[in-house]
């Protein structure tokens, strides 16, 4: 009797509390001119919250799913279909090689920092190398979370720890319209990862860790490692059904395995080695393939120098600039070998005795 444990979640908000929370987004006095309209919208939002209206537009799943009669979210299905199309493009032998560059810094000059990040500059160096090698380059700048209007990477809800099949591929936790958890950027980000033959993550160190936007993306990629591609098998988020399904024997499919990766981690005081190792371990776990020692870079830029001089220090550090270019060169070479079938992967056919 493996029953889900419950009792942590607070009671739903009452009507008055909901009104306070809803109105926080409309603090600007300019919204006073639309008071009557806001009242109507608030009432609809309250009803959606009270009813738990997560997926307002659904359709029958159809014969390709385990339960054809399940009311499947149209938004989830559209994301799923884009991933299938991206996977087909990625595997087409005549297609151009594609590398995803992930700029992990939170900084850009379109918001409070008032200046671009060093990570952005390093990302552009890597892009120049790949474009010169005739690769398609997909640039994911995670700093857009600080400057893009209503752009979000919502937190991972930890479904996998209830049971792996409850974690759907792609993630079905969002959007949740009843709780106003919408505009989830991950729907686009999943597609970028799937379409890529190689991925390079470039990131600074924030307090011995990756920046928050990068960690948010990493957490939400948990569904790529063992995630369930058929939400009808758990009828959405039915925890008990997911537990039963996992205990029957779950294959833990690795949806991003076989892609090449490189890393460029930089800092100014401490933490570069630990962050680089953590990222390497995570990508290895997901089944990605490192492009060699020179593709796993960790360096200090301006060790204990004033922050105000950090870009000048980077201007002068020609060695680290060339090392970042070498990360891109190594990934490009590895992608070429991978697509020719000549990249050495000695353990590729070994079965893990501890799948998870």
Describe the overall structure:
This protein has 356 residues and is of the alpha/beta class. It is 38% helix and 11% strand. It has helices spanning 15-23, 35-51, 74-91, 118-132, 144-147, 186-195, 212-220, 239-247, 272-285, 310-316, 318-340; strands at residues 58-60, 71-73, 98-103, 136-141, 198-204, 260-267, 289-290, 296-300. Strands 3, 4, 5, 6, 7 and 8 form a 6-stranded parallel β-sheet that branches. It has a two-stranded antiparallel sheet with strand order 1-2. Helix 4 (118-132) crosses helix 11 (318-340). The mean pLDDT is 97.
Mean pLDDT: 97
Flag low-confidence runs.
Answer: none
Rg over CA atoms, rounded to whole Å, is 23 Å
Strand content: 5-15%
Number of helices: 11
Largest sheet: 6 strands, parallel
Which percent range fits the helix content?
A: 25-40%
- How many DSSP E strands? 8
SSE inventory with pairings:
Elements: H1 15-23, H2 35-51, E1 58-60, E2 71-73, H3 74-91, E3 98-103, H4 118-132, E4 136-141, H5 144-147, H6 186-195, E5 198-204, H7 212-220, H8 239-247, E6 260-267, H9 272-285, E7 289-290, E8 296-300, H10 310-316, H11 318-340
Parallel strand pairs: 3-4, 3-5, 5-6, 6-7, 6-8
Antiparallel strand pairs: 1-2
Helix pairs in contact: 3-6, 4-11
Entry summary:
With 356 residues, the chain is α/β, with parallel strands linked by helices. Helices cover 38% and strands 11% of the residues. Strands 3, 4, 5, 6, 7 and 8 form a 6-stranded parallel β-sheet that branches. It has a two-stranded antiparallel ribbon with strand order 1-2.
């Amino acid at each position: 009797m493996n029953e889900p444990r419950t009792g942590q979640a607070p009671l739903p908000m009452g009507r008055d509390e909901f009104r306070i929370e809803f109105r926080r987004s409309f603090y600007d006095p300019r919204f006073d001119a639309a008071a009557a309209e806001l009242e109507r919208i608030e009432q609809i939002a309250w009803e959606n919250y009270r009813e738990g209206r997560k997926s307002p537009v659904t359709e029958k799943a159809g014969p390709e799913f385990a339960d054809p009669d399940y009311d499947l979210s149209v938004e989830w299905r559209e994301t799923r279909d884009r991933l299938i199309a991206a996977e087909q493009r990625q595997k087409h032998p005549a297609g151009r090689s594609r590398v995803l560059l992930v700029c992990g810094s939170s900084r850009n000059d379109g918001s409070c920092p008032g200046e671009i990040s060093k990570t952005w500059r390093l990302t552009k160096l890597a892009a120049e190398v790949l474009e010169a090698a005739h690769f398609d380059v997909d640039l994911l700048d995670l700093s857009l979370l600080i400057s893009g209007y209503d752009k979000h990477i919502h937190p991972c809800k930890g479904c996998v720890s209830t049971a792996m099949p409850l974690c759907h591929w792609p993630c079905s936790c969002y959007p949740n319209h009843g709780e106003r958890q919408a505009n989830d950027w991950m729907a686009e980000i999943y597609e970028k990862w799937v379409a890529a033959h190689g991925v390079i993550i470039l990131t600074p160190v924030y307090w011995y860790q990756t920046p928050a936007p990068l960690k948010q993306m990493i957490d939400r990629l948990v569904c790529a490692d063992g995630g369930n591609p058929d939400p009808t098998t758990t009828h959405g988020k039915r925890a008990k059904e997911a537990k039963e399904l996992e205990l029957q024997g779950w294959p833990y499919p690795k949806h991003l395995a076989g892609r090449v990766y490189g890393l460029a981690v930089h800092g100014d005081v401490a933490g570069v080695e630990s962050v680089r190792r953590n990222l390497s371990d995570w990508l290895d776990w997901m089944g990605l393939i490192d492009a060699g020692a020179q593709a796993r870079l960790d360096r200090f830029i301006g060790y204990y120098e004033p922050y105000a001089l950090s870009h000048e220090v980077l201007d002068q550090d020609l060695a680290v600039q060339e090392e970042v270019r070498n990360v891109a060169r190594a990934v490009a070479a590895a992608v070429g070998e991978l697509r020719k079938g000549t990249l050495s992967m000695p353990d590729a056919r070994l079965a893990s005795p501890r799948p998870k």
